[in-house]
Each structure stands twice: as structure tokens, then as C-alpha cells.
Design a protein that fits this description.
Layout (H helix, E strand, L loop, with lengths): L1 H6 L9 H10 L6 H4 L6 H32 L1 H30 L20
Protein name: Calcium-transporting P-type ATPase N-terminal autoinhibitory domain-containing protein
GO molecular function, one term: calmodulin binding
InterPro entries: Ca_ATPase_N_dom
């Protein structure tokens, strides 16, 4: 075992998959390996998960590119922009009405018209 430890300098954490698999192949004749290597990561599952993440990432990227091209070709970006601008204007009007109602309910009376109105920061130009 000392010979194996001298030959393999595998870090305790975050070792590369090649080093770990090589070390595990040489240490196979261990008694009760399930108990001995209980908390060691399963390299096959780890690589399968990495492959699955890569496939999903490629599919998402392709969908995003197609979606952006569709927006450019159908001129839907302008429609979405106008819809957002209209929604923001109605939201601003609702906030102003709500603020004035609260001010009149609080007893401000005729002074409510002189109160500063809350401004919503516009995220759209």
C-alpha cells in the first residue's frame, strides 16, 4: 500500500478524473471496497451527468438562437416593446391614483394635489 501511495499523488479533494480512475484501478484488490471507499464519488455517474448537462446546454443554446432569429424576422421585438411601454404607463397611472387616495384618506385634503407623486424608474427608454 505504501508503494501505491508513493506512485500516486492524488489530492484529497477535487482530483482529476484520470488520476482517480487510475488510482482506483490499481487499488481494486482491497477487502470490502464498499466500506473502504464509501464516500468516494462514482466517476461513471459524474461523467454521465457532465455529458447530460452539455447536451442540455447545447439544446438551450440552439433554442435561444432560433428564438432570437424569429424575433428579428417577425419584427416581434417592437411589438413587445410597445406592449411593455403601455403596461408601464398604466402602472404609473394606477400608482398615482393610489397615492392620491391614500393622501386624501390620511386627511391631507386639498393639499394632496401639491404632494410629490412617486416615480417608477423606467427600465425602457
Amino acid at each position: 500500500m505504501e508503494k501505491l501511495l508513493k506512485e500516486f499523488n492524488v489530492p484529497a479533494k477535487h482530483g482529476s478524473e484520470e488520476e482517480l480512475s487510475l488510482w482506483r484501478n490499481h487499488v481494486t484488490p482491497v477487502k470490502n471496497s464498499r466500506r473502504r471507499f464509501r464516500y468516494v464519488a462514482n466517476l461513471d455517474k459524474r461523467s454521465a451527468v457532465q455529458e447530460q448537462k452539455a447536451k442540455i446546454g447545447e439544446k438551450l443554446q440552439a433554442c435561444f438562437v432560433l428564438y432570437m432569429e424569429e424575433l428579428k424576422s417577425t419584427d416581434a421585438g417592437d411589438v413587445l416593446y410597445e406592449w411593455a411601454r403601455e403596461a408601464e404607463e398604466t402602472l404609473q397611472e394606477d400608482k398615482e391614483k393610489e397615492f392620491l387616495n391614500e393622501a386624501s384618506a390620511a386627511g391631507c385634503g386639498s393639499e394632496s394635489s401639491q404632494l410629490p407623486l412617486p416615480m417608477i424608474s423606467s427600465t425602457y427608454p
